[in-house]
């Protein structure tokens, strides 16, 4: 206790917390640690900021001073000179041609447009049937439509003239949503299953009974198979399903054809169409174009290539040498040759490989080739996932007495696919970007359309604005896909630490 | 009694082919083989019929007929009087040229971008993230077209290089970037230049030997040689000595403005430059991601352990981090090289005469030999990719961690 008197000073209360010294908190500290921690770092920071500044100062005035209303490139330049600007983007080309970049030469629904927004002139011209009916004059019709489109705004044409692809894409989003986000009601998956038929009907048109009958035919084959399987086992069921499918859709045996009864589908379809004629004007694939083409090819390629790719990967791991050999050859040959050569095969060689006289839709050819191409890449990605799985998982599945397909479905694939998500999504992004290559086989993709736009006298010599627009379109989609894959990876991460 | 203890009778029933695990895989394979044969036969039969209907045959004799077209970018001499086979060879060399140049530049940019993206510096990492995302999420074809447009639309014309034209050559008046192409100095190989080149090649070989010797020595004795400085000296000094001893046999021919275009030097066409730059920039974004994930894959504990052993930071990088990171980096890096090679077939978009444009383009159009031409073209790409992927498999097995 005597100590107490010798201690000169003892603090009896806690000091109020003082703010950290300047330079040790907030923005300054952060900048010190991150931007100016060493000489090299400081130099890098200054260099980067200079880089950003020089790029932005070159691009921003051009972008922001852009001219949105002009009829041609020369008009754009006149406006620019009149405003005394050094450089200005001519966004007017996008303003005028964005519909074309999105849809190519896909026809607008002129009947709808004219009856909604051009009713007076339509009545003056003699009504819908006189202008668009079977007996109407083509030259008059084109003149009428051109006059109408000159008066309507691009947005009106977008929403009402292109309602078919628009609705198809919107429904596509609805169909894809439950697959992407597990929190949505599972019932929506039924719509996803039905979407391929709805989408085909909206994009291609024709009688509604075509897609309906195909869907019914597939469902019927499956049900027949299931029914037979209940009595005669899996094998009998499978054979019955295949037989039903052949009777409904194909007719490989020429001697059955004499009665003209098989395949069943055209007859039923014709009957239904004659009773209830319902449908949209048919639009052939060669009128498809623009970014819509990328969406159609990309989506079908993505949807079809995943199952094929998984099967190929399983085949490559199979312990049946012949199956393994076939899968390896297929994968390596497809991957070893560039897509552009495969597209070339689709456009020039396929006609040699098919029976004489048969013709094949150009878009369908491209979709098939793109699908096969992507599936070989998916197969390699999935193989990586399968190989990364510890051997114990396979052994555990076997020891539970699961057969091959059950063990794959319940134990192996869920884990292997989870590991391969980034790779699979990267392949999908690659596929989506590769849809631009169809320009080389004569389809009108957005890049091909930029050439078509430049070929007109108004927009001759315009490059950057068109390329930037197309690049941004693709960037938006691909960026979303890559972010989604990150989200999915985080969500499926079960071994959180 | 005998019946009760005897083994089950070994009769064979047809259903065993399907339900007995011993025979099932064989059954499936035989059926698959038959289906494959049938479909192949169907395809071949169709092709034969179609060819017969068109009055064509299947032969490669067209390769030895006169090509009759010119190729503007050639490594080996070619004129329109040469054969289609030689045209194909020129195209193959052009493909390999742009692929080789592209792989080097893409690796340099990619490694730089990948390392900088890991930087703690917010601004630098941000720029690199932007770069990588912009490149990866936009089609390569757009980049090729954009770079080509930059090269042809935004560069000065040759006449602008005259006095007061507003354009000037860069790198001490040796390189001219114009809308007709990039003109670079051309080395002229004089008397005795072969010796200089030989000395240079020998000194490179010496560098490799030096590195090996130094590593052995370190492993045995722990002594470290100043490898980097010695290599640098070996790289420059002998070649420069030989160059001056032989009386400066190698000179440069500078491109000069003559008439409406440059004369002298080497003209590198804009198509090659655009393809090269676009391929490199695009692929470098993927390489950057590979490098980044490779470095991140080495756990921090490795670095800390190396520091705890008292290693210098650069030795840590060299001996601990890099060998482990490279195991992760190299395989996908090689498959990126493969992708770059295959993507070089987009040369078509800018008119660069690669193998797709010579053999798979003009030759096919002129001779009408689609099947043969595409078969050869596909075989070429397939061989290249098989060579590259077998090199990768060899590397993979040599660095594989040895497990049970």
Task: Explain how this protein is built.
The complex is a heterodimer of chains A (497) and B (404). With 497 residues, chain A is mainly α. Helices cover 72% and strands 1% of the residues of chain A. Chain A has helices at residues 3-6, 26-34, 39-64, 73-83, 92-103, 110-117, 119-125, 127-132, 138-151, 154-161, 163-180, 188-204, 209-249, 264-275, 290-317, 321-336, 339-353, 362-388, 391-399, 404-434, 446-454, 464-492, and strands at 206-207, 279-280. In chain A, helix 20 packs antiparallel against helix 22. Chain A is globular and about 110 Å long. Chain B has 404 residues and is mainly alpha-helical. Chain B has two domains: 16-53; 84-185 and 254-399, MetI-like fold (Orthogonal Bundle), CATH 1.10.3720. Chain B is built from 13 helices and seven strands. The longest helix of chain B has 34 residues, at 21-54. In chain B, 29% of the residues are buried. Chains A and B meet through helix 3, helix 16, helix 17, helix 20 and helix 22 of A and helix 3, helix 5, helix 6, helix 12 and helix 13 of B.
Structural class by helix and strand composition of chain B: mainly alpha
As residue ranges, the low-confidence spans of chain B are none
What letter string, H or E per element, gives the SSE order of chain B? HHHHHHEEEHHEEEEHHHHH
- Ends apart, CA distance between termini of chain B: 50 Å
How many domains make up the 3D coordinates of chain B?
Answer: 2
The count of DSSP E runs of length 2 or more, i.e. the number of strands of chain A, is: 2
Largest sheet of chain A: 2 strands, antiparallel
Proportion of residues in helical segments of chain A: over 70%
Classify the secondary structure makeup of chain A into a structural class.
Answer: mainly alpha
* Mean of all residue-level pLDDT scores of chain B: 83
